[in-house]
Amino acid sequence: MHLKNGIPWSVSLGTSAPAAAALAIRAALRPADPPPTPTEALLTIDSPPQLVLDRPPAATEALIAEWRSWWAVATRGEAEGPMSPGGVLGEIVDANEETLRSWTAGHKRTLADLARERGRPQLAGAVRAHEERTGTSLGEFHLKLIAVPLAAPVLLPLTEQRLLVSLNLVRDRAALNERIIAHLAD
Question: Which terminus of the chain has fewer Cβ atoms in its 10 Å neighbourhood, N or C?
């Protein structure tokens, strides 16, 4: 797409099974100590799958560090991260692989259904309205949105051009458009 002044832009919307799996494992472990970072506090998932934990590991600092490392890989962007991170978390993922795959596939179908819906506010119109209202251009941008099943409506920058978005925010296209424009205008 191009802005009114001919500047190109694009937004792609997809899912990440490894990121969703990492969130599900985090929810199953319910780490309270060490306390989550402010960003991690936003990562509460909606309707987590029921995972089997034979021997729930203690949420030690080492385990939390292992999860944070997996999360960084699962959301980095060059390619999808590993579904199973190895180590203690990998054992949990491997023991629950079918449940996690089924759960993440369901969210992928939900996203596909949302993307096909017609009559929802489009980002191009919102960008044009913003530029006309403010008299400023948002410039060239190429965003990649990763949709995951978070409980709260979240748009969380992972990098300048890569954003984590909750499925419930994708459902409310007007609110999503507002948050994208706010991110770009910031």
Answer: C
Q: Residue 79 — φ and ψ, nearest 5°? A: -155, 165
* pLDDT tens track for 100-110: 999 999 999 99
Which amino acid, 88? Answer: V
Check if the beta carbon of residue 48 is closer than 8 Å to that of residue 124.
no
Question: What is the pTM for the complete model shown?
Answer: 0.84
CA angle 161, 173, 134 (to 5 degrees): 65
Q: CB neighbours of 150 closer than 8 A, spacing ≥ 6?
A: 23, 42, 43, 44, 45, 46, 164, 166, 167, 168
Higher pLDDT, 142 or 75: 142
Q: What is the Cα–Cα distance from 66 to 125, expressed in whole angstroms? A: 42
